[in-house]
């Protein structure tokens, strides 16, 4: 795999506000109150990296209002650098998710109309000193619409030109795309620019032929990870293909696992661990997060992750 020269990562994508129905286990329509937390896939990944001993700088936009300021304050509290965060005026609003802490029939109501992170444009990514960082991590939702799509692809090009590994979490959200055919075309073009491609079986299915496509992508990528939920994952490199199981836990909710996986996997890779250990650490982080309320607050620190792996098979 392409080496990471340092543990300071650029992470590009959504940061938002999550509201969780209280108490845990409550359906939203029956909630007596809601607890707030930082949310958004890219923000969650950045927090995961920070809590595991790395550094993360988030590239995104938030709205010029109290919610946008809440998001920035939360990012800073978690140690995420905000020097590439941008405040956008006008009618754009930061993403809001109203979610439940329920393992079964978990409802998520997403408010994404006129999302501020979709206002990311070429100017926002043009003048970043990419060579200062270890890798660029992109969440695929940022590719759904313009101008964010072009800005994301430009950031990927700049990172490649600077010699950085480029990593994508496919992160397919159908409600953000015009249609599945467009998503497939854009994702395939972006994946061809990446050193690491991570997604689940549904996302690879949207892109093409599922596991068959994953095997094709590894011809250009260093690593492709094909996640299958409770069935674990299949990791493909140019030299090997192997399956990894999951750490069985009693889940409180299904959300946040993919973001935790990415954070633990990429920090482990930066530490020089072998690929199988990196995947196992990602799987362990995912297992921890689904047992807790929230996503960003649930991301484990390194000691917790190490202890979990000692205590669980």
Quick synopsis:
The protein has helices spanning 41-51, 66-77, 122-126, 148-161, 180-191, 201-207, 211-217, 257-270, 275-289, 302-311; strands spanning 8-12, 16-22, 33-39, 55-63, 85-88, 95-99, 108-111, 135-139, 166-169, 196-200, 223-227, 233-237, 241-244. The chain is of the alpha/beta class and 313 residues long. 49% of the residues are buried.
What attributes does this structure have?
313 residues; alpha/beta; UDP-N-acetylmuramoyl-L-alanine:D-glutamate ligase; nine-stranded mixed sheet; four-stranded mixed sheet; 10 helices; 13 strands; 34% helix; globular
Describe this structure as you would to a colleague.
With 313 residues, the protein is of the alpha/beta class. It has one domain (8-15, 39-91, 119-311): Ribokinase (UDP-N-acetylmuramoyl-L-alanine:D-glutamate ligase), CATH 3.40.1190.20. It has helices at residues 41-51, 66-77, 122-126, 148-161, 180-191, 201-207, 211-217, 257-270, 275-289, 302-311, and strands at residues 8-12, 16-22, 33-39, 55-63, 85-88, 95-99, 108-111, 135-139, 166-169, 196-200, 223-227, 233-237, 241-244. Strand 9, helix 5 (180-191) and strand 10 (196-200) form a beta-alpha-beta unit. The longest helix has 15 residues, at 275-289. 49% of the residues are buried. The mean pLDDT is 96.
CATH domain class: Alpha Beta
Helix and strand sequence: EEEHEHEEEHEHEHEHHEEEHHH
How far is it from the N-terminal to the C-terminal residue, by CA?
Answer: 27 Å
- Number of distinct beta strands: 13
CATH topology assignment: UDP-N-acetylmuramoyl-L-alanine:D-glutamate ligase
Q: Using the alpha-carbon principal axes, give the shape.
A: globular
CATH architecture: 3-Layer(aba) Sandwich
